[in-house]
Amino acid sequence: MFSTLKTLFAGAQARADETITDHFALDLIDQKIRESENALKAAKATLASLIQRQRSEERQVDTLKSRIDSMMNRAAEALDADDETLATEAANAIAQMETELAMRTDTLDRLEQKVLRMKSSIEAGNRRIIDLKQGAIQARAVRREQDIQKRMNKTLSGSDAASEAEDLIARVLKRDDPFEQAEILKSIEEDLNHDTLENRMADAGYGPATRITAKSVLERLKASKSAA
To answer: What does the alpha-carbon distance between residue 33 and residue 27 come to, in Å, rounded to a whole number?
Structure first.
């Protein structure tokens, strides 16, 4: 039982983590890009330091080679002059300088390899960051499309402001016309007071007229014309 609950809890936690990751995906992408840019910046600083050391070793190597060449010439001149003592001292100095030269040349070779590897890594990292930024732009475009699609889906499903407006319009249109209702009430009142019946009987010629009609107006016009 405990194992089952533990598994369910782990699954729920995983789903929650995925939901959070999806929600903050764009922010996480920006953060990872910034971290990558900081790492690239640190790598560039390291490369600059390596290149400085490389140039320093190159100057030391060139200086040693020049001193060795100069000392070789001096030792040769001392031997030509049969000055064994100075020639021997020169040979010792040359031996020490050549040992130092070998060490510095080995160091220089290693530095050159490190510089080449670092340059390659920086170029790859720079290209990757460019790709990441392009990917972030695409991700934002996709997210905007997804948000628009969600709003469209809500509109099509009827659960949005437009649908609410449509419902309100339909509700207003379904209401009874107050003017028509007033006319109906007036007619009802007239029927109850027998006004309608009296008017109809008067219009039919039974009894005096209760209202001015088109017929009475025509009769007056005809009578006026005959009198003239």
So the answer is: 10
Question: Cβ contacts of residue 48 below 8 Å, gap of 6+?
Answer: none
- CA angle 130–136–140, rounded 5-degree value: 150
Instruction: Write down the pLDDT at residue 192.
Output: 47
| Residue 207, CA atoms < 13 Å, CB-side half-sphere | 8
CA distances from 170 to 156, 160, 197 (A): 18, 16, 39
Q: Which residues of the chain have pLDDT under 70?
A: 1-24, 151-167, 169-217, 227-228
Task: Say how far apart CA 177 and CA 161 lie, in whole Å.
Answer: 27
- For the chain, the first-to-last Cα distance in angstroms comes to 117
Inter-residue contact 107 to 85 (CB < 8 Å): no
State how far the Cα of 156 lies from the Cα of 162, in Å rounded to an integer.
10
Query: What number of residues does the chain have?
Result: 228
Q: What is the reported pLDDT for 16?
A: 47
Q: Does residue 25 contact residue 139 with C-beta atoms inside 8 Å?
A: yes
CA dist 211 → 190, 205, 218 (Å): 14, 12, 14
CA-closest candidate to residue 71, choices 56, 53, 93, 52:
93
